[in-house]
Amino acid sequence: MAFLFSNCILHLNMTIFTDIGRYLLMFKGMFSKPENGRMYWKEFIHQCTEIGFGSLGIVAIISVFIGAVSTIQTAYQLVSPLIPPSTIAQIVRDTVILEFAPTLVCIVLAGVAGSRIASELGNMRVSEQIDALEIMGINTKTYLILPKIAAALLMIPLLVVMAMALGIWGGRLAATASGIISGSIYDKGLLEFFVPFNVIFALIKAYVFSFIIASIPAFYGYYVKGGALEIGRASTKAVVISCILILFADYLLSALLLPT
Amino acid sequence: MIEVKNIKKSFGDKTVIEDVSSVMKAGQCNLIIGSSGSGKTVLMKCMVGLFEPDEGEVLYSGQNFTKMKGQDKTEIRKEIGMLFQGSALFDSQTVEQNVMFPLNMFSKDSHKKKLDRVNEVLNRVNLVDSNRKFPSELSGGMKKRVALARAIVLNPKYLFCDEPNSGLDPQTSLVIDRLIKEITIEYNITTVINTHDMNSVMEIGNYILYMFEGNKEWEGTNKEIIFSKNQRLNDFIFASEFLRDAKDMRMLEESGKISNDRNMEELMHKDSASLVPPTED
């Protein structure tokens, strides 16, 4: 039993190290001179549209509701008459900027954009489309993966900035609609004790998460083997691992960059 | 001409190809045949560089493709067209965009010139009025023809076809086979076809390489195949009673004992009564 267990652990370790090695090699193979700059640019714009505009709706809905719920729950917990009501706006602002907009939105994007990237590449691999590109003399890692990562690095931070604004606006909407605080008090609270570094910190997180969201699914999709079932499995695995890595990176960045 | 020298390929403990050497002749249809799992697809993938052989080398017109890196390899690859088993068309692109893709990537011609070339090759594969269609709107045979058009759009020197008839009815298979044959002659391409369709072997195979369990079992022309004494080859090629009869007939034709000028029209008129199927009472 102990032997079997140790064997399983060894196999798991080997798989993890093999995957890490292949992931790094994928990056090594990704940087080569494009065969035709215009085609790569077209692909980059296409990916920007897919990742950015394709996720706009879900990001907007989530952000508004997260902001609204934050306002109501903060008001519910702040029962002391000694705390000024504008504090609700401060708390909503900081939670949305520091955590909800970058982390929650990126976890949702790992599901939306990540699964799309993994299944698109997986389908291309299984149906030999990647092989067809290779035969044509195209570096498929550069043509298929690099534009996706570049597009994610451009569009996801923009989505996060939009999520910040919409989350704060959603909080204001809930505050005024349910009569918790007036709009003017909320606006006053937003300007109190504002730390600009929080926005920079959120953007650093957004960039790190964007890289995870695009590169992990691209890796699992690109190297998929088998048929339709394996594409589904690769897509699920990509989303799960992306989410875990996002949470891990979130903790690491908070511990390293936020003064406590 | 493509030379394959002492190719060996293993996956883990399993050796798929053991020391295979052959020469694929220019301007001819070279067929790699063999039962499923005999290593013919792996051999083809080693030839086009999708797999790296463990040992041996592949030479394109004398240039060692296996040892090439970077730009040199890309240059050879630009001279290769490949028709995949599942066509490998880009789902999100129309027929026109699929065929134009290699041109957009590698040609500096104007859009008008590229479009003319696309229409020319689509016409060549007898596919007109399908430019705006997506692969999902095409039949299996049409997909193969689009894939063939895409494979030849850059005027390749070498054409590889991986099981071009798989999933097609016999009549469409024949159309695809003849198209490949005509294109091979017309453009003077070195064509390598991987198949287990016996009709293709007899119809278009100028030169045939028979693989058995990762080894080269037999090679020769499609005329020689009729007279081959290789038992494994005979068991594989002439597996059914019908094919054995066809072989006997072809042997008689080849040896001149019977005429191969069959006038079907005359036959139809002469024995028209006997060709009417009996009615069921």
Provide a quick synopsis of the model.
With 260 residues, chain A is mainly α.
Task: Provide a descriptive summary of the structure in words.
The complex is a heterodimer of chains A (260) and B (281). The model of chain A has no long low-confidence stretch (mean pLDDT 92). Chain A is elongated. Chain A is built from 9 helices and no strands. The N and C termini of chain A lie far apart (46 Å). In chain A, helix 4 packs across helix 7, helix 4 (86-126) runs antiparallel to helix 9 (228-257) and helix 8 packs antiparallel against helix 9. Chain A is an all-alpha fold and 260 residues long. Chain B is α/β, with parallel strands linked by helices and 281 residues long. Helices cover 42% and strands 22% of the residues of chain B. Chain B has 12 helices and 10 strands. In chain B, strands 6-7-8-3-9-10 form a 6-stranded mixed sheet, with helices on both faces. A 4-stranded antiparallel sheet of chain B has the order 2-1-4-5, covered by helices on one side. In chain B, a hairpin with a 2-residue loop joins strand 4 (55-60) and strand 5 (63-64). The radius of gyration of chain B is 21 Å and the shape is globular. Mean pLDDT of chain B is 84; it is low at 271-278. The chains are: A mainly alpha (260), B alpha/beta (281). Chain A binds chain B through residues 32, 35-36, 38-39, 123, 127-129, 131-132, 134-138, and chain B through 48-50, 70, 73-75, 77-78, 80-82, 84-86, 88-91, 101-102, 104-106, 160.
